[in-house]
Amino acid sequence: MAAPMCGEGACLAAGKLPRGGARWPLCGHTKRAWPTLLAMKRDLEAITDTGGVKFFVDFEASRGNFVTDVDGNTLLDLYSHIASLPIGYNNPHMLAVFQDPKNLSLLAHRPALGNAPPAGWAQRLSQTLLSVAPKGLAHVQTMMCGSCANENAFKAAFIAAQEKKRHGAAHSQLELDSCMVNQAPGSPGLKILGFHGAFHGRLFGCLSTTHSKAIHKLDIPAFDWPIARFPALKYPLEQNTEANTKEEAECLSEVEVILKGDDDIKGLIVEPIQAEGGDNHASPAFFRGLQAVCEKHEVAFIVDEVQTGGGAAGRFWAHEAWDLPSPPDFVTFSKKMQIAGYYCKEKYIPTHAYRVFNTWMGDPVRLLQLEAVLKCVEEYRLIENAQVTGEYMKAGVEALAASYPGKVCNVRGQGTLLAFDAPTTTDRDALILALRMRGVDIPSCGDRTIRCRPGLFFTPQHGKMFLDALEAVIVSHFCLVKP
Q1: Over the range 462-472, which residues count as b (16 or more CB within 10 Å of their CB) and which as e?
Q2: Which residues are catalytic?
């Protein structure tokens, strides 16, 4: 199945430079030796935490969908820097951003956007972030990262709720005085409802709605905010319709009970795919039900598209698949968008200055990068490519699940945001290590899940390379015979 691109787009997707550039390999390779990595890690761990460092990247040597480390190992990249590298390594469109003399002033000066934005800032926002805004949301607030996008969406929801409660009246002196000592009524006990399995970031508010891995939360004080159960669907979906419908109905009922019993809940946050929690999915009907319950109880419906936004889901925004009757109250973003922030309805814009604020409020350079990304998305039909490639990869993994029952299971995905489970955590970790030895870098999540997070130029050709490597490591690890 051919990807819907041609010319320079096809060259970039194949991992080579267009216009006479050097060709890059269509398969990864490793030397199984990392002397430079080990030396660099020793140097780095003397001055900072290196617990999460896998390898050091040679960015000059990396191209397209292939990442090369400092020891010369080249890997097919299905990790993409935690799903944040949208158009691959050394994409000419991205490099041109930093080579264009017209961009020098923004590269040289990082402004305090909330106080002194650069000339033409409204036009730049309109041409980039607002050009791909979720339908019905015409307001955007830029931020620094996904965590602060979610954190400030929480704040905006709380501020709007309290302003509505005052019926337009000014803050009381008691509110002003009490908030300075962290007491009510100025610091009210408002809450955000989250879900088991969710990940929304590592700031205090976000961490209180994050429930995916204990190590993220251990030793950190948390708000006593409510948690609801997220559906645990059974696969294949078509063989478990009745059970999954019942599961989602029970989860919706639980949300209803929680909201009905606590007037202090002013927001509900949910991911279209619970990424860190195990790539957990739910049906469009479930999310429509969530929105309806939120509207019923006057609770802000916050959709966290930090990992799913930007096209990899086969739509620019994953929540577009839900066919909502009205837009969410908030949609947060980061990662593939290069800049972070949130879209919101007009009623969530604070009436006073400095309520949602920090020094930088984002970074204009990241908006320049987003311009390059959006140009590629449109010119090379990358959303359609994600659909085609995702279908190809999902069919391939499902075929492996059929050939090796019990070794690959629960295949699921939207676009190239594909995932499947191994029998155990130990098996999952061994498969990921074996894939890396075969030249494929791919991440894990949840207890036993392997997830795909490639860039937008990832094609069926790259998908076949991954599937071939995956089958090889399955056969080797489980001591099977290839059918």
Answers
A1: bbebbbebbbe
A2: 199, 304, 335, 359
The DSSP result for 228-279, as a single string, is EPPP---SSGGG-HHHHHHHHHHHHHHHHHHHHT-TTEEEEEE-SSBTTTT-
DSSP state of 23: P
Alpha helices for 284-341 (secondary structure H): 284-296
Phi and psi of 419, rounded to 5°?
-150, 160
Tens digits of residue pLDDT in 50-86: 999 999 999 999 999 999 999 999 999 999 999 999 9
Using the CB atoms, write b or e for 397-421: b if 16+ within 10 Å: bbebbeebeebbebbbbbbbbbbbb
What are phi and psi for residue 345, nearest 5 degrees? -75, 155
Burial (0-12, 13-18, 19+ Cβ within 10 Å), 245 = middle
Q: For residue 21, is pLDDT > 50?
A: no
Q: Which amino acid type is present at position 23? A: R
Q: How many helices (H) and strands (E) does the chain have?
A: 16, 14
* pLDDT tens, position by position, 395-452: 999 999 999 999 999 999 999 999 999 999 999 999 999 999 999 999 999 999 999 9
Residue 210: count other Cβ atoms within 10 Å of its Cβ. Answer: 25
SS (H, E, C) 182-239: CCCCCCCCCEEEEECCCCCCCCHHHHHCCCCCHHHHCCCCCCCCCEECCCCCCCCHHH
d(CA 55, CA 38): 9
Lookup: tokens for 102: 């017209």
Verify cis geometry, omega within 30 degrees of 0, for the bond prior to 18: no
Is the separation of the CB atoms in 159 and 353 below 8 Å?
Answer: no
Averaged pLDDT, 221-250: 98
pLDDT band, residue 17 (cuts 50/70/90): very low
Q: What is the pLDDT of residue 358?
A: 96
Residue in the block written with tokens 């295949």: 411
- Both tokens of 71, joined, read 């020891």
How many Cα neighbours within 13 Å face the side chain of 368? 20
- Three-state DSSP at 340 gives strand
Q: Using the Cα atoms of residue 115, residue 117, residue 122 and residue 126 in order, give the sign of their dihedral.
A: negative
Alpha carbon distance 237, 41 (integer Å): 44
